[in-house]
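Researcher: I'd like a candidate sequence for this fold, 203 residues long. If you have to choose between options at a position, lean toward the conservative one.
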């Protein structure tokens, strides 16, 4: 394990303990805009989605036995999340569980059309509410930049309204290389105008 500021950063499958459950709690709090349709009960969301983290693709920043932040980095070919219908239906009910499997798979397991080589895809960065603003997400990303053997790193489709995330990525040296406009209808519904993609080439 490496010490990054106040946090120990390790791959999630090596961190042991309750990491999956704690990651699901961070996910429920940080990605709620995708989830409220399925349930407004945080415990239900935690139980329904805890199965989906592919732990060897994730890194966690630990403060003792607490997961302060997490993030994934894939080779642009594998997925960091794998949604399964059975646990989604068990906790969300048959209809919403099936909808979650269908809709969220499209959002969260989007394959790269032409996956770039020597490139890590940084995905699903999230910090527990009580650890926000303390460098936990930065520790996770810096660990990935230091330890993973990619020449380039990309972060796909960050909402232009997500100022904390964009500031975080830019502070660590990522720059915008692409932006996609949402349709006027999608923009009205979500308040998001563009999805921004960022990249960083390792020196
Ligand atoms: C975005 C997020 C991961 C940041 O995590 P964090 O651990 O609080 O970030 P850090 O403490 O490492 O912050 C590093 C830098 O990010 C920027 N930043 C972080 N939070 C910010 C905020 N609320 N407003 C503006 N800038 C912010 C700042 O530049 C900060 O540097 P500074 O502390 O020197 O000002 C966190 O807010 C979160 O979990 N959000 C919900 C999930 C999400 O949107 N994930 C990103 C999906 S693309």
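Model: Candidate sequence:
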């Amino acid at each position: 394990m490496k010490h990054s500021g106040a946090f120990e950063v390790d791959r999630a499958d090596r961190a042991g303990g309750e990491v999956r459950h704690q990651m699901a709690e961070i996910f429920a709090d940080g990605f709620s805009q995708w989830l409220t349709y399925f349930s407004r009960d945080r415990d239900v969301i935690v139980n329904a989605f805890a199965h989906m983290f592919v732990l060897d693709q994730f890194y966690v920043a630990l403060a003792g036995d607490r997961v302060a932040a997490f993030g994934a980095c894939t080779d642009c070919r594998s997925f960091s999340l794998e949604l399964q219908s059975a646990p989604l239906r068990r906790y969300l009910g048959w209809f919403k569980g099936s909808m979650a499997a269908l809709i969220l798979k499209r959002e969260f397991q989007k394959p790269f059309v032409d996956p770039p080589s020597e490139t890590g895809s940084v995905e699903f960065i999230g910090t527990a509410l009580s650890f926000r603003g303390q460098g936990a997400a930065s520790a996770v990303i810096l660990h990935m930049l230091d330890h993973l053997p990619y020449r380039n790193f990309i972060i796909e489709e960050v909402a232009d309204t997500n100022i904390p995330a964009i500031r975080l990525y830019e502070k660590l040296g990522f720059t915008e290389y692409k932006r996609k406009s949402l349709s006027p209808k999608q923009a009205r519904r979500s308040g998001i105008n563009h999805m921004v993609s960022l990249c960083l080439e390792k020196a």
